[in-house]
Design a protein that fits this description.
Blueprint (H helix, E strand, L loop, with lengths): L1 H8 L4 E6 L2 E2 L10 E2 H14 L1 E2 L2 H9 L7 E8 L3 H12 L5 E4 L2 H5 L3 H10 L7 E4 L2 E4 L3 H16 L3 H14 L12 H9 L3 E4 L12 H19 L5 E3 L11 H9 L4 E3 L25 H13 L2
Parallel strand pairs: 1-5, 2-3, 4-5, 5-6, 6-9, 10-11
Antiparallel strand pairs: 7-8
Helix pairs in contact: 1-12, 2-4, 6-7, 6-8, 10-11
């Protein structure tokens, strides 16, 4: 029944699914992580009811209008270690391929800005009841307040320019009396292994910036640097890009689409909901994250998405 309905509603269309962190064991600090068994269920249902195709294949299908029915793509953002330790093995288990969009600063430093915030708050001395960062004061007198501070700081820092973000996190680290020397990211050997096993690698910029907050020069350098690093590691062309945060107008605009074209990218994905068809702009392909835990909910969401509702 699911296959029949999906096939009827999906003709000439595809969905691109977007995942981030997937964890075997979660703590209260892991807000936004999907549990591994939920992710595995998604893969099981996708392999049973849908035609899962790699993003490069989707691109070709769009060019010659040859999308298979019930077409779906899987994408993974950022490049944290669970991409390799949890997600990659599950994809292999079900014989599926995905595109991993990597922010390459993490390959150099071992983490990205959001994990730096989490690390600082987690390792804050117990006697520290408040922290002050560039005029902002946060109550850290108990566990609940520290959790709230972590979330507020994360939201605030996300929309800062790269220079100000760096200053803010460095001051946070000093206030919390710790050094940012933790490693939670994949490395070059992981990328090589994933590529050798049929996975695709894409760019997610270097420092995961909100491109709309940066100058054209900085944006171009962020994108070009990431592409160059990944091509050197993967020994293959990096053809696709995922806009950090991914909302047109708020996080990126037509200037950045132009930069991607100039740098030789074939296409890019956003975080706008929708489906992909031969009429789609391949530099603004929509995708979404299905958080559903039941088969009916998950497949129903994909069908609803195919219907454009």
């Amino acid at each position: 029944m699911i296959s029949t309905i999906s096939e009827y509603t999906s003709k000439g269309k595809a969905v691109i699914l977007n995942y981030h962190r997937v964890s075997e064991h979660q703590s209260i600090y892991d807000n936004g992580h999907m549990k591994a068994h939920h992710f595995e269920n998604h893969l099981r249902w996708l392999s049973t009811y849908y035609n899962v195709i790699p993003l490069p294949e989707l691109y070709i299908n769009l060019q010659d209008n040859s999308l298979p029915p019930r077409a779906a793509c899987i994408t993974i953002d950022d490049g944290y270690y669970d991409s390799y330790s949890v997600i990659f093995p599950l994809l292999k288990k079900y014989g599926l391929q995905a595109t991993f969009f990597v922010s390459t600063e993490g390959l150099e430093t071992g983490s990205l800005w959001d994990e730096d915030i989490k690390y600082s708050i987690l390792n804050l001395p117990s006697i520290k009841t408040k922290i002050e960062i560039k005029g902002d004061t946060f109550d850290t007198s108990n566990f609940e307040n520290r959790l709230a501070a972590m979330r507020e700081i994360t939201h605030k820092v996300k929309y800062m320019s790269l220079d100000y973000r760096k200053e803010y996190i460095e001051q946070l680290s000093r206030e919390c009396e710790n050094e940012l020397n933790h490693h939670t990211f994949i490395n070059e050997s992981h990328i090589v292994e994933m590529v050798e096993n049929g996975m695709d690698i894409g760019s997610h910029a270097h420092s995961h910036p909100i491109l709309a907050k940066e100058t054209d020069e900085i944006s171009r350098n962020e994108i070009a640097k990431s592409k160059s690093i990944l091509e050197s590691m993967a020994q293959t062309d990096i053809d696709f890009f995922a806009y950090p945060n991914g909302k047109h107008g708020a996080d990126f605009d037509d200037r950045h689409v132009g930069i991607l074209k100039e740098l030789g990218f074939k296409g890019a994905v956003t975080t706008e909901k929708g489906v992909v068809s031969s009429a789609s702009d391949v530099y603004q392909m929509p995708r979404f994250t299905p958080w559903d835990k039941s088969k009916v909910g998950f497949c129903g969401r994909l069908i609803t998405n195919f219907l454009g509702k």
